[in-house]
Amino acid sequence: MAKYIVVTGGAGYIGSHTVVSLVENGYTPVILDDFRNANRVVIDGLKAILQAEPIIHEGDICDPNFLDSIFEKYEPLSVIHFAAYKAVGESVAEPLNYYQNNISGLVNVLQKMLEFNISNFVFSSSCTVYGEPKGQKEVTEETEKNLPNSPYGYTKWIGEQIIQDVYNANKHLKVINLRYFNPVGAHKSALIGEFPIGRPNNLLPFVTQTAIGKQEILTVFGNDYPTPDGTCIRDYIHVSDLANAHVKAVDFLMEKKSGLLENINIGTGKGTSVKEIIQAFVKETGVVLNWQNGPRREGDVVEIYANASKAEKLLGWKSELTIVDAVRDAWNWEQYLSK
Ligand code: UFG
User: Fold this and answer.
1) Which ligand 1 atom sits closest to the C-alpha of 87?
2) Is 293's C-beta closer than 6 angstroms to any atom of ligand 1?
């Protein structure tokens, strides 16, 4: 019998890579996506990688009837919930869209899971829930949560709180909040990857778009931070490693007999500065990158990286790919998009 896993936002950046990992590990993903934030090119890429037609249902998870029809048809073992808006700047300009989509979507999915007696749930959370960590820059799951700096961040912060409250009232649920650090890179085939809509906000898509000529120049947002080279430090995790973490999370949930709620950091455990990313990109690709120092970006956390030991201990997961893999794969994907 097929082991169906519903993947909301399964045509998106992290979702599509997770679909590949699920198939590789014997699961049958059921992609739910309305393509408002995803590109159909990804579906062609998935077909080519999987050598099969993925199961896709086009619809909005905020529509309860849509979820009814899916849960009824597939009786999934688990839900992995990616579908959400994720642009920090946009969320500041359009907060209601973020609260409406990200919070209603989550509430609706949880509501329907309870109705259909589906117990296993993996939630896309973010290191944004730590805000600017006080003192230690390496954060564990026990590190105090701080208030986020954007409506987007709040949707993850509140999302975790909603999940906690729903779990408190339904202790049979088995839930993992995966707190992603900075996802980067693309599938090694370069057939799926990230599609920034409009001008990219994130660093690596901006790097590759500048390198290919879609953007004129990359601006490094601040070079006077209290870090070794003056630029901000993040934990960049290859999207294929991140995808595998979801499979490990589902495996873990399936093994457990009683309810649980765990927060798990998904990162490499290593901090990398903006300048180090630029250097890695130039060295690996040999491409000349047009870049300049510029002013700080408002709301940027100075330095944060994961302590990822809980993921290894609980899920048997750790990152395998490097920054070099990530810049190479991101560049191959950018070149593929420009063909
Ligand atoms: N950066 C630049 N120039 C750019 C883009 C980014 O210098 O053109 C710098 C940023 O200032 C930051 C680093 O590159 O120092 C990484 O920036 P990203 O925008 O790629 O990533 P963030 O760490 O700011 O954001 C990520 C996720 C968000 C999440 C946030 C929480 O993308 O979803 O972490 O900290 F909310």
Assistant:
1) 33
2) no
Query: Structural domain boundaries of the chain?
Result: 4-185+236-267
Specify the CATH number of the domain 4-185+236-267: 3.40.50.720
- Tens digits of residue pLDDT in 189-221: 999 999 988 899 999 999 999 999 999 999 999
* Backbone φ and ψ of 235, nearest 5°: -110, 100
Q: Is the beta carbon of 183 within 6 A of some atom in ligand 1?
A: no
Active-site annotation holder among 152, 154, 225, 305: 152
- The model's pLDDT over 175-184, given as tens digits with 9 standing for 90+, comes to 999 999 999 9
Q: Which of 233, 300, 238, 235 is nearest to 265 (CA)?
A: 235
- CB distance 88 to ligand 1 below 6 Å: yes
Taking the C-alpha atoms of residue 97 and residue 114, their distance in angstroms, rounded to an integer, is 25
pTM above 0.90, yes or no: yes
Helix (H, G, I), strand (E, B) or coil at 232: coil
Tokens of 274: 């903006």
Residue 152 is among the residues annotated as catalytic for this protein? yes
What are the residue ranges of helices labelled H in 79-173?
Answer: 88-93, 95-98, 104-115, 151-169
| Token pair 């944004």 in the structure block, residue | 128
Q: Ligand 1 mean position to 299 CA, how many Å?
A: 10
